Input
Amino acid sequence: MKEKIEIIQSDITKQNVDAIVNAANTSLLGGGGVDGAIHRAAGSELLEETRRLGGCPTGEARVSKGYRLPARWVIHTVGPVWRGGHSRERELLASCYKNSLKAAVDIGARSIAFPSISTGAYGFPLEEATQIALTETMRFLASDKTIEKVVFVCFGDRATEVYKKALLRLA
Ligand code: ADP
Output
């Protein structure tokens, strides 16, 4: 399974994969960080579609088209806001990865790219979030035969280093 995982330092809006994941907020109406970058790159049709989706609860995922992005689909998931670790943050972040991968299988995507969900404005500690991202993905890949490639797109040197180290430590 590990061979299906790739870690790169890049911009997720540039990825040539079937689906990219957006770290959205519950309104699905766009925002800052990676969400803003995805909406800018996809064009205004993306907002027209996400407006019709009617929001998304934390931990769940919703699918839209990718419009001007190289990716055909955008899977919007809503990560938890870090409130100190006693508000089901870990469980909710794990659900984001699980539900996004499930959504990818449902639309027939074979390659998917993730940003580091919740570790920007939402304040989730990076090391722990990385561990959850990789563990949930490995668990999913162990029982799924359709996803061929999962790319973790790191924004900046620190995230790249943390992800690469965590992947090395995985059995
Ligand atoms: P959240 O609200 O879920 O914390 P953010 O967008 O603030 O979402 O941050 C999530 C992660 O996405 C952060 O690690 C941030 O550095 C990263 N990020 C921001 N822009 C991009 C981009 N264009 N491509 C990939 N990752 C990005």
